[in-house]
Amino acid sequence: MKFVELANRNFKVMWRDWISLGVNVGLPVALLLVLQALEGVDEFFAPTSLAPGIVLFGFVMLTMTSAMVLAQDRESSLFDRLLTTPLRANDFVIAYSAPYIAVAFLQAILVFAVAAVLGLGTEGNVFWVLLVLVLLAILYIGLGMMIGASVPYKVVTGPWTVVLLLTIFGGTWVNLEDIGGPFQTVADVFPFAHGLEAIRAVMIEGAKFGDIFVDTLWVLGYTVVVAVLAVHVFRRRMAG
Question: What is the pLDDT of residue 10?
Fold first, then answer.
């Protein structure tokens, strides 16, 4: 548990930054309120279909925030001092990830709470929705750790934009079935579309775990790979 003290410091830094925290938590809710008004145009924008995509948009915002915090710290004298401690690469990754995992849960709770007021419902087992969301939250924060450990602070937005676009065209608030073609083909290679498909299948169609097993496996596989790569990249940065 060597990472606990650093994690506590990162929690304090995060909660003291009210502007960043407010944007990360408030913007997804605001976007939900705006886009659900289009329900009359396309049923895709009904709360039950739209809310999971809005949650993923919130997660991708945390990818950028966590990457920027890590990259900024990595370029500071604080990080030089931290490298003299007995912390290992995985300790750093966990300590920087934990605060944003907590915010991800807060984002999801608020989005689904507001969506419930707007008419959200679920036909299936909520546990499977939570399982996929937890995996996705870890995946997005892990991507933030990879970016923050790999690139300078000033260019964090570059790789983050790629993650953002893959998320949007993975079906957050665009219907992949309507787009089709190469966009859908590319989206199916990445875990974001699979995660959304699994969540929506449970909530809208009442799908059981066997029905979403393959999609969940895609998300789990990417999450494990990203977590391992985040630790590996961090270890190389420490050695360098």
Answer: 83
What is the b/e burial string over 18-34, where b = at least 16 CB atoms within 10 angstroms of the residue's CB?
eebbeebbeebbebbee
Of 177, 147, 165, 182, nearest to 72 (Cα)? 147
| In contact, 138 and 101? CB cutoff 8 Å | yes
Task: Show the 3-state SS of 121-146.
Answer: CCCCCHHHHHHHHHHHHHHHHHHHHH
CB-based contact 74:233 (threshold 8 Å): no
Report yes or no: 6 and 78 within 8 Å, Cβ to Cβ. no
Instruction: Report d(CA 92, CA 83) in Å as an integer.
Output: 10
Structural domains counted in the chain = 1
For the record, the structure tokens of 86 come out as 């007995």
Confidence at 2, pLDDT banded by 50, 70, 90: low
Range of the domain at 174: 4-239
Q: How many CA atoms lie within 13 A of 42 on its CB side?
A: 10
How do residues 49-104 score in pLDDT, each as one tens digit? Answer: 999 999 999 999 999 999 999 998 888 877 777 777 777 888 888 888 999 999 99
Q: Which residues contact 175 (CB under 8 A, 6 or more apart)?
A: 42, 44
What is the per-residue pLDDT for 235? 82
Annotate 151-182 with DSSP letters as a single string. Answer: S-GGGTHHHHHHHHHHHHTTTSSS-HHHH-HH
* Cα separation, 55 vs 19, whole angstroms: 19
Number of H helices, E strands in the chain: 11, 0
Q: Is 179 left (phi over 0), alpha (psi -120 to 50) or beta?
A: alpha
Nearest to 155 by CA among 75, 240, 239: 75
